[in-house]
Task: structure prediction
Amino acid sequence: MTSFADDPCARCEEVLQPYLDRELDDAERAEAEYHLSLCSYCRKRYRFEEHLRRLVRQAAVVEMAPELKARLAALRTPLH
Result:
């Protein structure tokens, strides 16, 4: 595992998902937040991942219209 001192962007990439999941300890979280405050590239990646997670959560609770379900079911091909 890389460290923030060795390659800060690579380390940020490694901890981005655990950071979003709130799985980092206080020191790791502080390092990630410090790097995100300085690095526009990693900050953009963070915002993208955060937005993607929000969209996935919303999609999971929105019920699909019965007509769309029927149309999709009609497109299925049987497995033989």
Remarks:
- Residues 8-75 form one domain.
- The chain has a mean pLDDT of 89.
- The chain has one domain: 8-75.
